[in-house]
Design brief:
The chain is mainly α. Helices cover 55% and strands 7% of the residues. The protein has two domains: 207 residues, HUPs (Rossmann fold); 88 residues, Orthogonal Bundle (Tyrosyl-Transfer RNA Synthetase), CATH 1.10.240.10. It is globular. The protein starts with a strand and ends with a helix. The structure holds tryptophanyl-5'AMP.
Length: 328
């Protein structure tokens, strides 16, 4: 039986957080056993905020190394850099021409990001069209992402449908694959906000490369809710529910089991144990990351991945050109 296709992407921006890991990367690793997976370091998306060239180069390699360290097997998945496959930019432009100003204006991520920035580039606005191109080039069935990407995926489906209606059914309509628990890991200093590396307060997130003592400090400082009880209730106990989610995903224990374990025990003890669980969860990833950075064979992996990706993207792009009347 032919395996279903999975595609997902991650931006090469400095630090990756526990939110990236639990919301997306962990699913990427699990899916490699049962699906035909394409994973992409989306450096063209990073251009929307005009990064420093040298930093971008370094971050691209570091993120790729982190993905392998987190458990991706380059022999099982296709891991590549977006700009190595020129078809992404080409289809991105064409789909930009099919997405409306109204649709792009409604994207909450654009609204949030443009509020934070002094300079808002055209790329930041049309970013979801490039994301749609990434996904549609590969006949993708499933897209493992965090909750914050749901709206972009809905737009991807709308654009694909529009294309199919107008030019003939070429594109597969992708489904989001968002974990029920962990799809939205919240900030440690404010359970109303998503954990994000762009938060200026580094105590609000756990970086995947944070040393053990930093992790301990950040978790001990994490805000909690009123009352002493430890149970899962995202509405009324947002902070503790978020910590329980992290505990559960890092330890493999269910939330119910954790609620039982901590019955009658206080936040202090809970947080102390949680810190150790997170430290242990990240320890092997950090060790592998350091090895990979030293051995330096990430470039090789990415080169091979780009070749495999191009072999799928090029014929797809050829069909798009044909259908849209771009071949004369
Ligand atoms: P990015 O780079 O911001 O994040 C990478 C992945 O991590 C998830 N994530 C989280 N999940 C749960 N809780 C959090 N606090 C959290 N923070 C981040 C994101 O949902 C994402 O899955 N636009 C995308 C990149 C992209 C892409 C694609 C994704 C480009 N093309 C095609 C899928 C398919 C982004 O900026 O992700």
């Amino acid at each position: 039986m032919k395996m279903k296709r999975v595609f997902s992407g991650i931006q090469p921006t400095g630090i990756l957080t526990l939110g990236n890991y639990l919301g997306a990367m962990k699913q990427w690793v699990a899916l490699q056993e049962t699906h035909d997976c394409f994973y992409c370091v989306v450096n063209l998306h990073a251009m929307t905020v005009m990064p420093d060239a040298e930093e971008l180069r370094e971050n691209t390699l570091s993120v790729a190394a982190m993905l392998v360290a987190a458990g991706l097997d380059p022999d099982k998945v296709t891991l590549f850099v977006q700009s190595d496959v020129a078809e992404h930019a080409e289809l991105g432009w064409l789909l930009q021409c099919m997405a409306t100003f109204g649709e792009l204006s409604r994207m909450t991520q654009f609204k949030e990001k443009s509020r934070e920035k002094e300079v808002i580039t055209g790329g930041l606005f049309s970013y979801p069209a490039l994301m749609a191109a990434d996904i549609l080039l590969y006949n993708t069935h499933l897209v493992p992402v965090g909750e914050d990407q749901r709206q972009h995926l809905e737009l991807t489906r709308d654009i694909a449908q529009r294309f199919n209606n107008r030019y003939g059914g070429l594109f597969t309509l992708p489904e989001p694959f968002i974990p029920e628990v962990g799809g939205r890991i919240m900030s440690l200093d404010d359970p109303e906000k998503k954990m994000s590396k762009s938060n200026p307060n580094p105590n609000s997130y756990i970086g995947l490369l944070d040393p053990p003592d930093t992790i301990r400090q950040k978790i001990m400082r994490a805000v909690t809710d009123s009352g002493r009880e430890i149970y899962y209730d995202p509405e009324n106990k947002g902070a503790v529910s978020n910590l329980l989610t992290i505990y559960s995903l890092c330890s493999g224990k269910t939330i119910e089991a954790l609620e039982k374990d901590y019955e009658g025990r206080g936040y202090g003890e809970f947080k102390k144990d949680l810190a150790e669980v997170v430290v242990e969860c990240l320890k092997p990833i950090q060790a592998r990351y350091n090895e990979l950075k030293e051995s330096g064979n990430i470039n090789e992996i990415l080169k091979k991945g780009a070749g495999k990706a191009r072999a799928v993207a090029a014929p797809m792009m050829d069909k798009v050109r044909e259908l849209m009347g771009l071949k004369v």
